[in-house]
Amino acid sequence: MFLIPIIVGTIAFAVLAPIVGCLLAGLDRKLSARMQGRVGPPILQPYYDVRKLLEKDRAAVNSVEGTYITCALAFAVLAGGIFFGGGNLLLSVFVLTLSSLFFILAAYCTRSPYSEVGAAREALQIMAEEPMSLFIAVAFFLATGSFDSAAAFTLDAPAITVAWLAFLGFLFILTIKMRKSPFDLSYSHHAHQELVKGVTTEMSGRTLAKVEVMHWCENVLALGWIGLFFVWGNPISIVVAIVAAALAFFLEILIDNNFARVKWQLMLKSAWAVALVAGGINMAVLVYL
Predict the structure, then answer these.
(1) Which residues touch 282 (CB under 8 Å, ≥6 apart)?
(2) Any stretches that span the bilayer, and where are they (predicted)?
(3) Peptide linkage before 182 cis (omega within 30 of 0)
(4) Fewer CB within 10 Å: C terminus or N terminus of the chain?
């Protein structure tokens, strides 16, 4: 019985997340262009780009690269299915990290110096944001008594009322998860940030298309984690959660267009400091409440 919601959630996420993620990516480009005084591409431009990639032949330096990317996409979808199926939030975090590790392996297997530098930076980004991701799952457990995301619907008040400090910490590392400046060290979607395309330098065709779809799914999942803290035992809370996720999404675009990329040392130090202060203090308070 426990597996049925996860299976249903995974299938629904596999179908809906790429659609929602594609629209969010198009909206991201449009809003970024407006902030920079440009017209910008159409909202469906990310879809057109991926469709074009799917029509191209894949030129792989190492044939195993495509297998690693397929695994990364599969685990990203599974992480979303676990979360939106009402499953274990902590497990969702771990599965998404596993997806990122396969992405790193795909970059390393090409033996390109540019890809290897991008893969090393991707690993640093995971090291920077992972502690706060774990803290947010633990804070949710302390607030609800369960790691299951479905437990949020049993609350009398949203989890953010008691876990707001941990939530702010997660909002900080959301910039890393969504690959936004100033923390887009390994891979940026903006041409002005890249001369060589970082971790995806040697990827092309269908492999690169799967990477784009994977990023769409990751963004939807990350925004879902944001919305989780605004849900309680009232159907109207779903609307509140969607609004909160939309505001967080707009904030990330605003940050992306107003801050230059920083060095990895500053990213690592600041992310860990925020995790220690925001996550540590909030969990200590919840333990003794």
Answers:
(1) 135, 139, 163, 164, 165, 166, 169
(2) 6-27, 66-84, 90-110, 131-153, 159-176, 238-255, 267-288
(3) yes
(4) N
Q: What is the pLDDT of residue 289?
A: 67
Token code pair at residue 64:
């195993």
Q: What is the pLDDT of residue 263?
A: 87
Residue 88's DSSP bridge partners are: 148
pLDDT at 1 over 60: no
Q: pLDDT tens across 60-79, in order?
A: 777 788 899 999 999 999 99
Give pLDDT tens digits for 171-197.
Answer: 999 999 998 888 888 776 665 555 566
In this structure, what token pair is assigned to residue 245? 């996720």
Distances (CA, A) of 46 to 32, 49, 50, 272: 14, 5, 6, 33
- Whole-prediction pTM: 0.92
Q: Where are the domains of the chain?
A: 3-288
Q: Residue 196 has which token pair?
A: 């060589």
